[in-house]
Request: fold
Amino acid sequence: MQSDTFKVAANKLLSSVKIYSNIDGTVDIDGELRVEFPLEYFPKIRILNGNFDCSFNKYITSLIGSPLLVGGHFRCNNCILLTTLIGSPSIVDVDFWCYNCPMLISLKGSPFIVGGNFKCYNCASLTSLLEKPLRIGGMFHSKEP
Reply:
């Protein structure tokens, strides 16, 4: 069964990082996460002190289940089924990449604050740049580089 395979993959990935449990049932993580399966197989991550990479993930359609705060890069580029950024972290300390996502239709749900660059170019279904982050510390890339 595929869901069992995803559960095993999530547990294996989580065993490679330091996890701190919070009283509200969320977890904080020190380490890098590279996710190649649906995000619902993770516990609710409040803070990730490291990079979050779900790029080239062929299962996700939204970012629901992502950490609330990422202390590194957040990469969800090249996700062919991603249609929405809803579920994105509120704050990403470094770069946020959502480029080459052909089904992405809006920037609704994007982080409030991105400390580095925000890249959303080459998204064929993206018709509006409204709802981009309120604060971007680096460059905003919405066209081909």
Observations:
- The chain has a mean pLDDT of 90.
- Residues 90 and 111 are 4 Å apart (CA to CA).
- Residues 2-141 form one domain.
